Amino acid sequence: MSDTKARTAEQIEADIAATRERLASTVDELVDRASPKAVLERQVEQAKSQVFDENGQLRTQKIVAVAGAVVGVVGVLLVIRRLVGRR
Questions:
Q1: Model confidence pLDDT, tens digit, residues 2-32
Q2: What's the CA gap between 28 and 17, in Å, rounded?
Q3: Cα–Cα distance between 6 and 1 in angstroms, integer?
Q4: Rounded to two decimals, what is the model's pTM?
Q5: Could you give the dihedral angle defined by the CA atoms of residues 41, 47, 50 and 56, in that order, rounded to the nearest 10 degrees?
Q6: How far apart, in Å, are the Cα atoms of 84 and each of 37, 51, 70, 87?
């Protein structure tokens, strides 16, 4: 707004009311985003997107990679356990 033009009390009140509405809307949106239910829903959707593609098909490459990593970690742990058990 221009500083050279004086604003009326009604204009200032209207600006304050509009700002208050925007602030209330922003606060409501933040409360919705931070609610435990909304956070849980986002996490579930993110987990699903890791397992399923956009067509609903399983992402077999990712599943095989994760399974291979789990088998590898379990194998390493078993080897370490066996080596420590020999002492």
A1: 555 789 999 999 999 999 999 999 999 999 9
A2: 16
A3: 10
A4: 0.46
A5: -60
A6: 45, 36, 21, 6
